[in-house]
Amino acid sequence: MDKQTILYPTSRDLRTILTDAVKRSDLSAFLRRKGIFFFNATTDDLCAKVSEMLLSYDDLQALRSMAYRTVNKQILSGFTLISSAEFDLTSIYNDIRLKGEVKKEGYTLECITEKDIPSVGKVYEGSIKYLKTSAGRVAFIRHEERDVSFIMKRINDNSWQVEVDGGSSNDGKAVNMMLDSLIKGKDIKLDSLLLDYLSRADTIVFFDKLAKEGLGTDWTIEDVERITLKHHAGTFDDKDEEAVGDDEEEVATEQLTGIAQAILEGKNLRENKFVRQAENSGYAFTSMTYVFGKRDKQIKLRAEFKRNPKIFEVCLEGYYEPSETEAGKYEDTMSSLADVENISLRSTFWNNAKKVFREIQAARMMPVRKDSEDSPTTGGDGKEKSVEMQDVASVVAKEGKSKRPKKKGKEL
Fold first, then answer.
1. What is d(CA 269, CA 255) in angstroms, rounded to the nearest whole number?
2. Number of H helices, E strands in the chain
3. Within its chain, how far is the Cα of 100 from the centroid?
4. Which residue among 45, 105, 108, 196 has its CA within the 20 to 30 Å range from the CA of 273?
């Protein structure tokens, strides 16, 4: 494969990038691999020395990758395309790409390539370019060209899944709109994980189960760092509200500690006093930031239902390894995390979130015994009603609960 053409940066530009976007530990590891050691040097000293070196193409690519991984948000979102008949999404994509039918809508479709990924199977990698419009510092409107990559995977003859590896929430929105254009006029439905399909109680169960099932058995939940709630967030319960609320709130430290403790101990989160009060007051959980541990590594993942754009996304906010300079401490080594592992972590978490989401949806259609306590599915005549409007979180929350002693989190 031909190497990408890059311009050799000036010493000043390289030093700026190294100072602003590359971790000291990563820079030290880079130098050690080259057999270069500096003693009693500050971070600024290291950056200055490296910027004055004559570096090869591969060296520059390694430094560029470190800097990009540090500053670029690691966001993954996804969509499912479903039809009543067999279809080939790659053929539809290529046909529209060659005809240039979506260029007038601001999208440039790049070629897709077939790849085999271990444990995933055959996928098709592609990317699009689009113009993002925002307020400018000088001009009233500023246009920024962005490119975003994605993979397409056939689930069965009638459905495909698309995962978007983006740097912002707008990247997922752009691919969503592009897919809408691809399937316009066709018997294909674009399905997303939307807050609209959950009740307020469901959102609690969703984030609770993600703590236990998000990364499987290889990683263990160690802490919950942040939770956001939103009043009348636009959930299934809020469909009769006149407008979606704008008042998003972050859970205070005192309540967050209690919620994290309940999750770590495997308790039903809806039994927590604060959570119960929030639910009864019309609040839904819209995001949760988790810390998972695996041997000598930690990662921080945020799962969030966004309202603008309306999308569910998983963001890798931190990757931590033991500090080389301070015993017992951890430091962020995101820039040294391989791209394949980075995407794999987010993809695993997103796909498990999709599984939990579908289970909660399916639970809405589960029959409920007539003798269930305070069940809204039983009318005055003793006959069962449809459970579509039922609060099923208590049913779902009882599945797969296991008591887990609290594991002390490592210091970050």
1. 12
2. 11, 13
3. 31
4. 196
